[in-house]
Amino acid sequence: MKIISRILIVLLILGFLQIQPVYAASFKDVSSDNTLSTEIDYLVERGIIKGYPNGTFKPNEYVTRAQVAVMITRALALKTTNVKNPKYQDVPTSHIYYKEIAATQNAGIFDAAKKFNPNGTLTRADMAIVLQRAFKLKGTTSPYYFTDVTEKTPGYKEILAVANNNITSGYQDGSFKPKLPLTRAHFSAFVARALTLSNPNLLKDPAYTYTYAYYSPDDGLRYTLNYQYSHNDNKNDVWTITNMTNNKPFHDELLYYDGSVYAQAIAQEYSSHYDFYIGLPLRIGVIVHEDDERPVNGNRITVQTTDGTVRAGGVNYKNVAILEESFKYIDVVKTYYFVDGIGLVKELHNGEVVYELLKRTAN
């Protein structure tokens, strides 16, 4: 009986361990599998959000207008000294967030009015207006269709801007829900995305021949691969790959870029398909979800940063876009390091280097 009891205790402990969520480093109520945890952690690291004294963030509570003013002030590093009094009737100079509210109004982010309503909520349409003004987002005239947004919708142009900059794509049913109040988690995510917007050219430069070290996951050997630009097939840049170790050709690589999409594929004899497909501009956070209806299904792509660093081939690269790809049905995590105007400089699989750019040689 004692042995059985011990076994039961062990099983209970193991079961308990398995069902406990893993939490992100920032807050005890934001789990690491939360699709917005990357953005939340980003803001914490930069002192833009700090949470509550008990270590929680309360991600599902509605964000207040005063909290929005504080976050935007910190994100933009607005000056809070000698601010002009906006004369909101409900924001006296003794208000705990008077300086931040005044700073954002002085910057033209919030309108002049009789009242500010500091404890009021912020709708998704309000969010679009705040972010467009704060970050001077472009794209207010480019079309983007939502089922519940028309030219008469308050914040119409600003909604277009946040959508065209991939800050939000709305809901799966095609709606934007402009009147829906925002949670603290969602507003934090949108601020982090606006702060990290980047539109790099991820293509390889045809003026160069690229030499990579390839560490084969299949046989564990190191090969040297040369990538030589061949032509454009009216859609893709076609690169011929040669294994310099045995002087044998690889399949061609196809790279596609139109300013709003980047994709890559391996050309095969009978068919070609994009095995990596992302929208641009880039911004921090999940940009492809495994349940999305996308050209590539079953994978999740998360932008870890748009201004990272990496060392490859003895060169230290800055302003690196670091993307992580995980798969629903395959036990592998790929990490890509892209540099604007150069393309891929490094790729890891489960933390191990698979591709590393050694050099570029002018043609």
Automatic annotation (TrEMBL):
It comes from the Bacteria. Keywords: Signal. Residues 23-86, 87-141, 142-205 form the SLH domain. Pfam families: SLH. This is S-layer homology domain-containing protein. It comes from Lysinibacillus mangiferihumi.
